Amino acid sequence: MEGYARMAEHPSPQTAPPFQDVFTNYYAQVVRQITRITRDQATAEDLAQDVFLKLYDQDLREIENLGGWLTQAGIYAAYNHLRSERRRASRDGQQELPGGTLEPSTEERWLKQEEIEAVREALTALGERDRVLLLMKYSGYNYQELAQATSIDSGSVGTLLARARRKFRDLYQRKREGDR
């Protein structure tokens, strides 16, 4: 709340209009992306507000790829929220997670963690543009939004996305085969 008060009381003439434009242009996309991860609209809206408060504290001129920054910040916020919910549930001794699902076994958690690590390593091995394209596409962004966020021609998005998928698949398969 303190960030909102600061924005209202002391808008900087250099950052207030661009920030308002950024908020107007990206808020719905960030909420949609977080909702896909958390499966809860109200939580997604709260987390999106946190993301934009963090953005407000940044110098917008220092962020090269604003769409990519917001995408990563939204993803991190959503996963951090889910992690804290799981910790809270285990600390409270609950057997069920929010949503009524049973907590997975140790083996299932280990296998899932191994899978997540393989995906994370494959994504990390990709170039920045390919990684941003894939993360944004699977977060629900359309081709026009991808083109705008990555500063590439909208006609090239499909081709670059297909190449990024192929690179990811190859890296992922190599990682999975190396684990066996």
TrEMBL record:
One of its GO terms (molecular function) is DNA binding. Belongs to the sigma-70 factor family. ECF subfamily. It comes from Tumebacillus algifaecis. Residues 87-108 are annotated as: Disordered. The keyword Transcription applies. Keywords: DNA-binding, Sigma factor, Transcription, Transcription regulation. Residues 23-88 form the RNA polymerase sigma-70 region domain. It comes from the Bacteria. This is RNA polymerase subunit sigma. Residues 117-167 form the RNA polymerase sigma factor 70 region 4 type domain. One of its GO terms (biological process) is DNA-templated transcription initiation.
